[in-house]
């Protein structure tokens, strides 16, 4: 799944829709680990959370786009790169799904949703989004089990 659309929400924000009481965080956490990310067009850098950086095989929480997608399933990389390039030229909402292929052979499903904005202003724009890592297993993979307390210990906290 690779999709990009002009930045007008299909489900518009309504009063109370962002209210934490209306969210079902426990159910989301039962089935997945999710984490926010941001991107700055002026620097070309993406800033990931601890889990996202670790699961993407990165040693730092900041990276470039090519560093991010290098671990994605090879057949998806060009589509995802094109999607990010389109989002960088037009304020838009986008989503994609792929599989992270880890050096040890484990496969981690990944869903990404995001939006780009600020492109029409004098600034160069930015992106913001969320990665969702489902907890279900792929063949031969183990699932995410705990939340990292620090980035340096995050790699030890996950049982793949």
Structure description:
The structure is a single chain. The chain is α+β, with helices and mostly antiparallel strands and 160 residues long. Helices cover 24% and strands 31% of the residues. It is built from five helices and seven strands. It has a seven-stranded antiparallel sheet with strand order 1-5-6-7-2-3-4. Strand 6 and strand 7 form a beta hairpin. The longest helix is centred in the middle third of the chain and has 14 residues. The protein starts with a strand and ends with a helix. The C terminus is likely disordered.
Which helices and strands occur, and which strands form pairs?
Layout: E1 2-6, H1 25-31, E2 32-40, E3 45-47, H2 50-55, E4 62-63, H3 65-69, H4 74-87, E5 92-101, E6 107-117, E7 126-134, H5 151-157
Antiparallel strand pairs: 1-5, 2-3, 2-7, 3-4, 5-6, 6-7
**Given the C-alpha coordinates, what overall shape results?**
globular
Q: Could you give the order of strands across the largest sheet? A: 1-5-6-7-2-3-4
Main sheet makeup: 7 strands, antiparallel
Rg, Cα atoms, Å: 16 Å
What is the typical, i.e. mean, pLDDT? Answer: 78
The proportion of strand residues reads 25-35%
């Amino acid at each position: 799944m690779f999709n990009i659309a002009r930045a007008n929400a299909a489900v518009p924000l309504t009063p109370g829709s962002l209210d934490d009481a209306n969210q079902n965080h426990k159910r989301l956490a039962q089935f997945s680990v999710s984490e926010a990310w941001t991107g700055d067009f002026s620097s070309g850098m993406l800033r990931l959370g601890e889990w996202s950086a670790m699961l993407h095989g990165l040693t730092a929480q900041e990276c470039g786009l090519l560093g991010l997608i290098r671990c994605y399933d090879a057949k998806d990389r060009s589509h995802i790169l094109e999607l990010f390039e389109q989002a960088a030229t037009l304020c838009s909402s986008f989503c994609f799904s792929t599989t992270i292929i880890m050096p040890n052979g484990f496969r981690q499903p990944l869903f990404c949703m995001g939006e780009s904005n600020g492109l029409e202003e004098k600034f160069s724009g930015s992106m913001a989004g969320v990665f969702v890592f489902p907890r279900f297993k792929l063949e031969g993979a183990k699932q995410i089990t705990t939340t990292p307390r620090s980035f340096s210990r995050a790699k030890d906290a996950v049982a793949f």
